[in-house]
Amino acid sequence: MLRGLYPGRFQPFHLGHLSVVKWALERVDELVILVGSSQESHTLVNPFTAGERVEMIRLGLEEAGVSSSKYFIIPIPDVLMNSVWAYHVKLYSPKFEKVFARNPLVLRLFKEAGVEVEEPPAFNREKYNSTLIRKMIITGENWENLVPEKVYKYIINIKGDERLKEITRSDKILNY
Ligand SMILES: Nc1ncnc2c1ncn2[C@@H]1O[C@H](COP(=O)(O)OP(=O)(O)OP(=O)(O)O)[C@@H](O)[C@H]1O
Ligand SMILES: NC(=O)c1ccc[n+]([C@@H]2O[C@H](COP(=O)(O)O)[C@@H](O)[C@H]2O)c1
């Protein structure tokens, strides 16, 4: 039995993330999806809480027909020292043998900690990119087709779009 780890902030969970999960599950039997920066929420870069992100990921995977027996979703807070982060993750997570990531720092830290890493391909990165989706939410462009349908409905339901717009307004006021 081989278990992989897929770290990300998932702000929000989009169709590129979904493709990575499916791609990884072709290579390992189970996947631990690490919701990173779990202490963060209500900011421009991290608008959603860890709990909201956990719900989004489960909804997206359910919609795609990925069995819940194939994955864990675990939120993990950041630590001040990058050098100990991989060990910190090992303490919080079910045991894993391999890490899937494209983030260079994540790849480096796990490699240095002696964990095997594999870089998934970029799936339509110019479209499937959380920074772009957050910008589209703020500017009112149509972002519906960039995330799983249930994730879109969830974000609208929790008024996540309004939250992001409001954070943007207060951020501008504070920066004057
Ligand atoms: N479209 C994609 N194809 C392949 N990998 C992706 C894609 N989008 C994100 N990833 C990878 O998934 C992991 C988690 O990504 P993350 O949650 O940061 O999403 P992101 O779209 O890069 O968001 P942000 O722009 O907020 O950083 C990272 O390793 C990232 O490189
Ligand atoms: N020192 C640390 O706590 C540390 C180091 C590297 C990555 N991380 C986290 O791993 C996650 C990586 O996800 P992204 O690829 O979405 O940035 C982020 O939540 C990031 O904060 C944390």
Automatic annotation (TrEMBL):
Keyword hit for DNA damage: no
EC code(s) of this entry: 2.7.7.1
GO cellular component, one term: cytoplasm
Top enzyme class: transferase
Cytidyltransferase-like domain: residues covered: 5-135
Pathway: Cofactor biosynthesis; NAD(+) biosynthesis; NAD(+) from nicotinamide D-ribonucleotide: step 1/1
Catalytic activity, reaction form: beta-nicotinamide D-ribonucleotide + ATP + H(+) = diphosphate + NAD(+)
Keywords: ATP-binding, Cytoplasm, NAD, Nucleotide-binding, Nucleotidyltransferase, Pyridine nucleotide biosynthesis, Transferase
Pfam families: CTP_transf_like
Keyword check for DNA damage: no
GO molecular function, one term: nicotinamide-nucleotide adenylyltransferase activity
BP GO terms, sorted: NAD+ biosynthetic process
Cellular localisation: Cytoplasm
UniProt similarity note: Belongs to the archaeal NMN adenylyltransferase family.
HAMAP family in UniProt: NMN_adenylyltr
Entry protein name: Nicotinamide-nucleotide adenylyltransferase
Organism of origin: Acidianus manzaensis
